[in-house]
Design goal:
- The protein is an alpha/beta fold and 388 residues long.
- 41% of the residues lie in helices and 14% in strands.
- The protein has a seven-stranded mixed sheet, sandwiched between helices. A three-stranded antiparallel sheet has the order 9-10-12.
- Strand 3, helix 4 and strand 4 form a beta-alpha-beta unit.
- 48% of the residues are buried.
Length: 388
Amino acid sequence: MKNIYLDHAATTPLSEKAFEAMKPYFSDIFGNANSQHMYGRDGAKAVSEARQTIAECIGAKPSEIYFTSCGTEADNWALKGIAAQLKDKGKHIITSVIEHPAIYTTCKQLEKFGYEVTYLPVDGEGFVSVQALENAIRPDTVLVSVMFANNEIGTIQPIKELCEVAHKHGVLFHTDAVQATGAIRYDVKDLGVDMLSMSAHKFYGPKGMGALYARNGMRIEKLLTGGEQERAHRGGTTNVPGAVGMAVALKEAVDNIEKDAAYVGGLRDDFVKKVLARIDDIYYNGAKDSSKRLYNNANFSFRYIEGESILFSLDLAGISASSGSACSSGSLEPSRTLLSIGVPIGTAHGSIRFTFGKRNTQEDVDYTVDELVRTVEKLRAMSPLYKK
């Protein structure tokens, strides 16, 4: 039986280089990085070097990188930290309707505490309008948070332009770059962002490891109180092997972005072309211009059938894909992102996300297309809604 993994937006396999680099810090160099002895100093040195590497990969300074447990923690810290820090200035936050749950549900929680949130709409391909942001900013706006690249449909936002609008009005700008980091070459200083979130397991690093970039001079309230770790900004014992693995994986990803984009993007493009040619009554969701879309992402909505049934059939054929965000996979509600770009509610229920990776092959593409065609034909034949 085949074993084809096409859910790299949910998580990626750990890089061999990262795995090897992490091993000593589980056993031989196991000291607490904040302990004042040689075991602690060895751990602290490894964390410092990892911080330096990650900073270099995104054009930041080491002092601007704060390790977290994941991208979700980084997102929560950015939003809640600024909301608390600037509550006397204003309680208005702007985000988009297609944000990852780590941002969207955090904003919903902040609304319960008296904050007001404006959710910017998107167009049919998932883009946030720069003018819409301009129109939404108010005197009491303290933060704008718009994701760099969407986790479901792969659309890449004009972050630099959006950031410029926010700064023109004296408003801080954060971006959830969890899907973008390692897949898009960027420089935080060129983008102009004040804060940026990332997660290691999205670019072949270890799970349970993330980071928040916060430019020097930023004042942000703590999210996790406790000890004096992360230069007194975040309590909690430092995950030394996680930091080491994250740094190695990110450098490997950044060093190979163009090569991986060409190879993986070629597989994705061929897959999309063949699916559109062989299956009718489908939507290709997200940006149509491949330069404005994550190179590994393909999201389709299949009319007249349920996405969960497609996933189950593909899984039986040895193909692992997704119906959307892994963080929302337990929900029976149609994708908020797809509804926001205008996909009809019934059709949104028939949506599948395929996200390719470095280990996939042309054989994977061809086999998946054949199985997908068979699956759709079989399920539509049983659907009372489908009329051939």
